[in-house]
Amino acid sequence: MSEMNGTQPTCDVAIVGGGPAGSTLGSLLKKYNPGLSVVILEKEKFPRDHVGESQLPGVSHICAEMGCWDKVEAAGFPIKVGASYTWGRDNDCWDFDFFPEEKFVDEPRPAAFKGQRHYTAFQVDREIYDDILLRHAEELGVDVREEVCVDEVLHEGDRLTGLKLSTGETLTAKHYVDATGAVGLIKRAMKVDSWIPAGLKNIAIWDYWRNAEWAVKIGIGATRVQVRSLPYGWIWFIPLGPERTSVGFICPADYYKESGLSVEEIYNKALSEQEDISALMTSATPEGKLQSCKDWSHLADRIGGENWFICGEACGFADPILAAGLHLAQSAAKDLAFTILEIEHDEIDEQWLRTRYNDRVRKNIDQHIRFAQFWYASNGEFSDLQGHCQSIAADAGLSLSPKEAWRWLSQGGFAEEDPGQAVLGSFDLKSARDVIDYLAPEGEETESFAIDRFNVFKFDLGDAKEDMLGVPKNGRIIQTKCYRNSEGKTLPMVGPFGMTIAALQGSSDLAGVMNGIKNQIIKNNVPADRRNPTLHQAMLALEAMISQGWVEPSLDPKGPTLNRQAEWQPIHKSAVNESIHSKDNG
What we know:
The chain is an alpha+beta fold.
């Protein structure tokens, strides 16, 4: 343990907050460096209740890396294959699935984390889930201190010097982390401000119900979350188990104030007026623990200082319509764990690592907030909130044209969030595009993927220079090469992006590019069962590169165009043209 100002710190890492962000951070620190002394300070005694039960598939992968996926699976939480919405231009119900229902194979539970379970998520009872994560961190050697409050954050300038605890002691550390969620204890002490988008100042009201019906049952314990619009807000319906369901209502804070109704009155009104939800709750009884809170999206101006970091919801929060709360919290915790571990290795410039963490996590949250703004501004079902939705669009600088929305989102970094795939926050490029197309105003023309419309792809780096980016992997931040241009856009030179760049440097016509990518897949020894998904990601990488201006597409009317239906055919060393078809023969 290193010395600080001539004194020995009490621990290496002091984490304030034992929720999913804090426990994920602690577990990964101990997994990859068991010698680190890590303390989690938690003001409450677990298990304790908490809202925010619906997950995205990325959380499952993080739990698997932590080593606690089997414990979560053994708890018997419902498997989330996706969500069902009434949202958009019509009152029709539509589904957004992570994994196709028709391909979901019924299997006994608890099951292993493999195959189809890589593409699904959980709907968790947070009282149980959060306790599993905290106890897991404790088993790995984290010093978990429950019912201990931080009474004062001691600091000199931008450097923390200690935490005064309710036990009377002062805890000192080499690294301090604020994982206190909306409380933002260190964040407030260091006077870090947050941006709050005016249009996403909502309130959430919820209760838990016994014996509500599941709207959809898929195999053993699988279902979809239900999201239902009303003229003045929306309802979530999240089964947490055979008998318990979380049912909540979201509406703008101003609308609630102007309604003149109490929290209980507006909640009951919403549930009674939404026919789908009402039908599921005919025989259900509430637990009688109606709760409410402000549910405001926000983004901290910075998420770190000289020897401290902010992690989880204290960094920022995006509206729950995207169900990204736990994903944002736990993915930021994973990134921070790897950042602190890398600082301890002392092989990469520490300020570079701190800046990378700040920029990467803040950008991820910002993209979620922007996507939420598009969802709200595009919901024609909000008949009582049309003025509110227009103000969201204006505040975000949004046109409701799907073409403009796509340009606005894709410029935010599909090529930058994860060099392993073309993603925007929690959404891959295709998923985000599907949602934008569905929410497009009636009569608005949508634009298909460029890789479907063009067949010549000219790679152009412009004024870009070689630079470095950090890829989190196996407890390390791996510095890899990238291109960065004067606009600040980054193009990774690894993973599917690297394969696509190599293919583009060898050919510009569609057949040549496709063959080049397939050759790269073989050259990189991608396992047979991962070749088709890798090809899929490489094609999405090409689409992302077009969106960001790295590739100029054009159409040769005499040449073939892409048939993405065939892209899922097996890739063999002899395969060259199975994903190409002629415009002449369809």
